[in-house]
Amino acid sequence: xxxxxxxxDVTHILEDKEQLDAxxxxxxxxxxxxxxxxxxxxxxxxxxxxxTQMAAVGKAINTAAFTLISASLKECLEEDKSNSAAVTAKLxxxxxxxx
Length: 99
Hints:
The protein is mainly α. It has one domain (14-97): Metal-sensitive repressor, helix protomer (Methane Monooxygenase Hydroxylase, Chain G, domain 1, Up-down Bundle), CATH 1.20.58.1000. It has 4 helices and no strands. The protein has helices at residues 2-9, 17-43, 47-79, 84-97. The protein is elongated. The model is unreliable at 1-7 (pLDDT under 50).
C-alpha cells in the first residue's frame, strides 16, 4: 500500500522542448476544432458532421496525452533517478486511464 501512495505523490515535468511544442500545437488544433463544433451546433449542421468533428477533437486530445506520457516515460527511464520506478508507475497509471 505504501508503494501506491508514494507513486501517487510523484510528479514529472516534461523537459523535452520539441515534444512540448508538438503537444502544444496539437492542443491548439484541438481548441480550434472545439470552436468549430460549437459553431456547427449553432448553425444547425448535421449530426454526422458534428460527430465527425467531435471525433477529431477527441483524437487530437488523446494523441497529445499519449505523447506527453510516452515522452515523460522516456525521460524518466533515461534519467535514472532514485524515484524513477515510482514515476514510471504513476505514468503507466495515467496511460491506462486514457484507455
